[in-house]
Design goal:
CATH class: Alpha Beta
Structural class: alpha/beta
Low-confidence stretches: 1-5
Mean pLDDT: 90
CATH superfamily: NAD(P)-binding Rossmann-like Domain
Radius of gyration: 17 Å
Strand order of the largest sheet: 3-2-1-4-5-6-9
CATH topology: Rossmann fold
Order of helices and strands: EHEHEHEHEHEEEHEHH
Number of strands: 9
Strand content: 15-25%
Number of helices: 8
Largest sheet: 7 strands, parallel
Shape: globular
């Protein structure tokens, strides 16, 4: 790492869900900016392919479904990357099915809640003591427009994102004032493997990542990307219109 001034307040940033979609683009853009990036994912092959892209990039394989292993994972990350100050909790899974669909049972519900909500909260909790020692630290929580207006075929996903949004709010209030800030990242429909084959205009993942990073640089407590800004306005002033759009999705 050189001593040049970086465009971000953290010299090292962890990104979960780093091997595809928004996470992959965040990793690429942060590394290109000279930030030391720790890319965390589950797929070893994809991580190995990613590891050769930049000297600023380190890959870490972990399964966030193993909730009991998260404190030890956080300890390893801090030991290996003492300058870690940015954390983007991006990993997520969405089952695009009706809640009463055949084959969508307790295991699927449990895993969706674990990856989208429980695991990122536990990882944030485990990393907080270290982050509090850094001059400037950020915990960024990736949520969705669905946190405001749920999608009928993604009931559990919508619920987890609503919960994660409220977690970001509460954590921000708890940490103020202090060196660690909690930020909510609200994204619209983005063109990722998660949304493959679904109708509707999708924001390219590269553009979504660039907007997220610009928002993080701005210091705003809530970063709304693209159509998520219009969705927030509709949710406040014309929620029936937003609900109609979600029912059709």
């Amino acid at each position: 790492m050189t001593n040049r001034i970086l465009p971000y307040p953290w010299p090292c940033c962890l990104v979960t869900g780093a091997t595809s979609g928004i996470g992959l683009q965040l990793v690429r853009q942060l590394a290109e900016a000279g930030v030391e990036v720790v890319a965390l994912g589950r797929d070893i092959a994809r991580l190995e392919a990613l590891s050769s892209r930049s000297a600023h990039l380190t890959v870490v394989q972990a399964d966030l479904l193993d909730l009991d292993a998260i404190p030890a994972l956080a300890a390893r990350l801090v030991a290996a990357h003492p300058r870690l100050a940015g954390v983007v909790l991006n990993a997520g899974v969405q089952h695009d099915v009706r809640f009463d669909a055949e084959g969508y049972g307790p295991r699927q519900v449990r895993d969706e809640v674990a990856v989208n909500l429980t695991a990122p909260m536990l990882l944030a909790q485990a990393l907080l003591p270290h982050l509090a020692t850094q001059p400037h630290a950020t915990i960024a929580c990736m949520t969705s427009v669905l946190a405001q207006s749920p999608k009928p075929r993604a009931a559990v996903y919508s619920a987890t994102k609503a919960g994660f949004a409220r977690f970001a709010d509460a954590l921000r209030l708890q940490l103020e004032p202090g060196p660690v800030r909690a930020v909510e990242l609200v994204v619209p429909l983005v063109d990722t493997p998660m949304t493959a084959g679904r109708p509707g205009a999708k924001l390219p993942a590269e553009a979504a990542a660039a907007a997220i990073l610009a928002g993080l640089r701005s210091g705003r407590p809530v970063v709304r990307v693209g159509k998520a800004r219009a969705a927030a306005w509709l949710h406040r002033f014309a929620p029936w219109i937003l609900a109609r759009v979600m029912r059709a999705s």
